[in-house]
Each structure stands twice: as structure tokens, then as C-alpha cells.
Amino acid sequence: MKISLARRIIIALAVFAAGMVLHHTHSIPESAELPIFLAAYLIVGYDVLIAAVRNILRGNFLDEKFLMMIASVGAFIIGSYEEGTAVMLFFQVGEWFEDRAVNSTRKSIADLMDIQPEYANLVTESGVERVDPEEVVIGDIIEVLPGEKIPLDGSVIEGSSSLDTSALTGESVPRSVSAGDEVFSGSVNINAKLRVCVTKEYADSTVSKVLELVEDSISRKAPVEKFITKFARYYTPAVIAGAIFVAVIPILLGQDPKTWIYRALTFLVVSCPCAVVISVPLGYFCGIGAASKLGILVKGGNYLEALAHASAAVFDKTGTLTEGKFGIDKIEAVGCSEGDLLKLAAMAESGSNHPIAVSLRRSCSEGFDYSRIGSSEDRSGMGIATSIDGKTVLAGNRKLMESEGIRVGADESAFTTVYLARDGEYLGRIILSDMVKEGAKEMVEELESIGISRTVMLTGDSKAIGEDVASKVGIGEAHCELLPADKISHLEEIIRSKPENTNVVYVGDGINDAPSISRADIGVAMGGLGSDAAIEAADVVIMDDNPGKVATTIRIARRTNGIVKQNIVFALGVKFAILALSVVGIANMWLAVIGDVGVAMIAILNSMRCMRTSIYGKK
Predict the structure, then answer these.
(1) Structure confidence by residue, pLDDT tens digits, 114-125
(2) Which string of b and e fits 453-474 if b means at least 16 CB within 10 Å?
(3) Among 164, 316, 468, 509, the one annotated catalytic
């Protein structure tokens, strides 16, 4: 039966404490102390010794386990039993703290892993059959019961319910869906049975892409992590050589061998690079975990570090800063009230599936009596003529009005405009525009407050529309009427003109902006839920449409980077100070243990501060 590390530490600590009491009270002879301390040593450290020996046999022995074995065994050889045991005991305490920290950090990522569905309820001619999600193909109908995960992406064809999408988006408010709505795998059906027509195979589904992204994020190292790996590779043999130098030179000069071997062993203990080697990757891992809790998937620590040095943010317009769908910007009524004008427009467009017609009906909260609506005639490229209450209502553009000889005035808005007339009498107009997303303005303000000195919008829309959106959200620079190639050219110019050692972030909707997302120093996909382009092209995927999370991601990156640097400076500063003290004989092995394990524990606890999400507010 394998005993856990925590239990071994407790048992070894009890034996060690007993040995210390007997030693300091002189209750047993010195020769009897060795078995007691050796028992505690082997209970807590046998796995470290085995791992060190295995590494030596493989030719890969220059690591912290090798240092611990040499230092602790050496202490036993020169008779410092309690110190040799303490070295191993507190090294294992540090390992336990590291395991706890990593396990805690993995929880949010494990929560993401829990979204993986185990089965799908496939609807067949003979009934409902439970199958592996990978066996379902596009066009199949699946049934999702309350409490079950949606196994594949699809469209609801029957039923209405609420979905918990928190594991995908970080959003705690359930999302209501009914027939015609798109649903994504990994969401949890809350309160009613749904039937869904599958639109993507499992390998291409949202849940599969998210899990793939999470696995990739763990393996991608930040430049600081790579530096620490190289640092440890050269640092360990350097300190072993230093310890040999500390021991051998004084002995050759006639000094007391036991004194200088003890100092060399102390040098080895304190030189162990655990605090730096553990805390740096743990810090970035915690930062990725914190982001995932908020529905932000960062593909690796390298992108967190790059985001920390962002100086400019470039945005697409449609789907990023705006909703990508029409909303009413202004109503100008002449022959009736604004409410009546909107209602009349919605009735006139009641038989159309055009996006403008859909937005007009959606904006008319009062509803209307379909029995009042008669026949309608589509006027291609101009609008529609509908009989309402026996009168002909025209709804369309200026050309439609002019074709009927109806004067609408000289003022022409740059936005989409629907003119209304009834039996030849002009009633007014409704101006529609792509609605700015809630929180977009606040996001730009927050970016400026955290030091993003340049915000730019690149769009293919007209200059009037683009500049209007830029003005509404507070973006300082807008380039409009751009083709995709023009966007890349402008982005490259922004990258060339950025301050040295800083980065440019491009934020797009992940569909049309894949080239720009790939070209930027850091590509961020907004509204990436269910978008293959977002998952594949972006370095960071914001799993819902919340613009505020752009600034939040940068704040997470800067906080994580700051904590990582704190750990490096603190750990190396303390270690070098104690190393110097150990050489001159001021620091003993007890202080070396504190300098190694204590610093490592402090660095680990400091790294775990990266996991806190409450400081970023509810985004």
C-alpha cells in the first residue's frame, strides 16, 4: 500500500521531533541517534533518493534531487544527522506545497475538461439510442435531457430551455434557447428536453476545439520560462563546482576538513534552484487558470508575457465593437407618432426575412394583429408595398419613394434608412445602424487607463459609419472602406511604428479577421464561441462577446508577469546572500534549509496570487 507524501511527512516529522528531543535532553547515547534520524530520513525521502539514482544512471543527474541527495547524505557522513534529516524533510514539505498549488491551479482547467460529453442520445427510427459522440454525423438528430451536456454543436429543432454555458464562456447567467437557436457542445441543458440537429462532427465541435486549446496552452512556455530552464541547466553544475571548490581548496591549505565539507554541503542545500524553477512556470500556469475562470482561453504563457508588454490595440468593427446586426438609431416621424411609425414598419415588413425586416420586428415590442395585414409586393432593390387596413404602405429606400413621386426631403443619412409612406403620404423614416456592443466604450477607456497608448479601428464600412462607431466607443483612430489586404497593410504599419520592446494586439471576430489575427503580435478572437477560425488563428480566445475582457486579459497578463519577476528577484537575492554567508561560516545548514524550502514556499504562495479573479471585477 502506497502512503501519501503528506502522511509520510507527518510520520517522519514525529520521528524527527522525537529524535531532536532525545538529542537535546541527552536521553540516549549519540550512537543510538543515527537509527532514529535515519528512519525519519528514509520514510520521507526514499522516493527522492530513488529518483536521484535513476537520473544518475540515465546521465541526467544535475537537478534538485541530486543536490538534495548529496547534501543530506553528506551531512549524515560527517555526523550531522538532524541537519541531514531536516534537509530532506523540508525539501519534501516544499514538494507537497508545490503539488497542492498545482492541483489547485488545475481545478479551473479540470472544470473545462469536465465539459467533455460521455455520450449522445441519437434519435433513430426505432427510438432513442445512447452512442459515442464521435459516431454522430452532421444532420443527425440528438436528444438532450435536463441535466445533460450537449454533446455536439447544432441547431434546436424542438423544445425550449435554458443552458448553462459557464464552462465555455465564464458567464454565470443561463442562456435561453428555443427552436432555430444555435447551441454549442459543452453547454449543460438545465430545465427541459431539447432536440437538436447536429451541424458539426465531434472532432470539429466547440468542446473538442476548447479541450485541444487547453492542452496546447499548458505546453507553450513564455520566454522567461525558457530562460529559467536554460538557467537551471547551467546553474546546477556551476554550484556543484562551487561547492567542490569551497570544500577542496581550504582542505588543501590545511584547514579542518569537517568544517569545510559542512560549509560545502550548506552551500549545496541553499543553492538548490527549486524556488525559481517551480514558481516561474507555476505563475504563468496560475495566470492561464485565472483567465480560464473568466471565460478567456490563453494558448500559453508566452502569450501572457507578450500581452503584458502591449502598447497598442487594433480592432475590427463588425462583431467586435458592434453587434453585427441592425438596431434602431433614430426615428423621425412626420405624419404620426414614433411608436406608430415603428409599428407600421414592422407590419409592412412582417413577411420578409431580410435582416432589416427582422430588426424592425424585434424592435417593435408592442406586437400587432396579423389580420390587419393584406397582400404585399416586393419592389426589388427598393423595398416593399404592403396592404395594411386596406391602405397601401410603402417601406423602403429613397428610390422607392421617388418611384412613387413621394418627396422625402434633401437630407440623406449615411446609415441604413427605411422610409415610410401610406397611400402616397410621407410618414417619416427610421434610421438603423450596427449597434455598438454594451461595454465597448468602457473597454476602450480601461485600455487607456492601463497604458495602451494607441487604439485603432480598421473596417470595410463607409467612412461615415466607421467614424461614428469610433466616436461612440472612444477610439482615437479609424481607417475605413478597407479591403482585407488594406487591413493587413495598416496593421503592419502600426506594428512598424510601435515603441521598442512593445507589442500590438489585434482584436477581431475570428472569422473574417484570421489573417490580421495571425499577423499581429498577439491575436485576440472576440466572440470565438463555435468559430473554427477563432480557435485556430488566435493566441487568446474570449469565449463570449464581452468586450471588457480584452482589458481584463491584459491586466491578468501584467499582474502575472509582475508576480513572476518578484519571485525571480526575491529567490535569487535571498539565495545569493545565504550562499555568501555559508562560505564564510555564518550560515549553517538550518539557515540553508530555510533559504531553500522557505523561499520556495513563499514563491509558490506568491505565484498562487495569480489565480485570484475577484480583483478584476465581474467582467
Answers:
(1) 566 789 999 998
(2) ebbbbbbbbeeebbbbbbebbe
(3) 316
Give the pLDDT confidence of 159-189 residue by residue, as tens digits. Answer: 988 888 766 665 556 778 889 888 988 888 9
Question: Could you tell me where the DSSP H helices lie in 323-421?
Answer: 338-348, 355-363, 398-403
Is there a single domain that holds both residue 137 and residue 161?
yes
Whether residues 14 and 137 share a domain: the answer is: no
Tell me how many domains the chain contains. 4
Question: What is the structure's pLDDT at 619?
Answer: 43
316 is catalytic: yes
Cα(20)–Cα(519) distance, integer angstroms: 63
CA 584 to centroid of chain Cα atoms: 48
For helices 223-252 and 301-308, what crossing angle results, to 10°?
Answer: 100
Provide the CA 51 distance to its chain's centre, in angstroms. Answer: 35
What does the block give as the cell for 469?
A: 462607431
One DSSP character per residue, 142-192 reads EEE-TTPBP-S-EEEEE--EEEE-HHHH---S-EEE-TT-EE-TT-EE-SS
Ordered alpha helix ranges (H), 114-205: 166-169
Domain shared by 409 and 452, yes or no: no
Q: Which amino acid, residue 349?
A: E
**Amino acid occupying residue 170:** G
C-alpha cell at 45: 525521502
Q: Kindly report the CATH number assigned to the domain that includes residue 378.
A: 3.40.1110.10
Q: Is residue 421 pLDDT above 80, yes or no?
A: yes
Would 251 be classed as within a structural domain?
Answer: yes
Cell of 611: 489565480
